[in-house]
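Curious: why these numbers?
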Amino acid sequence: MTDELRDGDGLQTVHQLRALTVELDLLAADFARRNDLHPTDLRALIALLDAARAGTPATPGLLGRELRLNSAGTTAVLDRLERLGHVRRTRDPHDRRRVLLEVTDRAIALGEGFFGPLIGDAVALVDGLSPAELAAVTGFLASMRALVARHGPGGRPGPGGAGAAAPGPSGVSGRG
């Protein structure tokens, strides 16, 4: 590594992102442990909540794609979450063959009780930014997500050149 990379602001920012990621991972792991969840279960809940916020019907197929699991793995996650009372499976009223997934009020309350103070503080921090600062932060985070997706599974540069992997609708990556 060159001295320029070692000492530059860019690398210091990368180290700050890494430290933030580690802290968020530890927090998510603590929540998962306290609530008898596997890290993938927490990622599933996040993906389902993100789909609900986006107005996207959540199905087992969507969840499997978000989590990068096959149908058997997705079913195992859903079985665990349903057994714990965190997810409900219902039939689509417009197509009875399709199963829809919904996070229960109990699971939402657990998440809000644990993560609510952090989310509130984060929103207050963001609300204190000027419009220019907010635009810069939002643009930076979107660019970082795209960059990480390019280097993630299916997007890693290989001997034949770089692949391209688009981030999923929720942007969930191993945060749990």
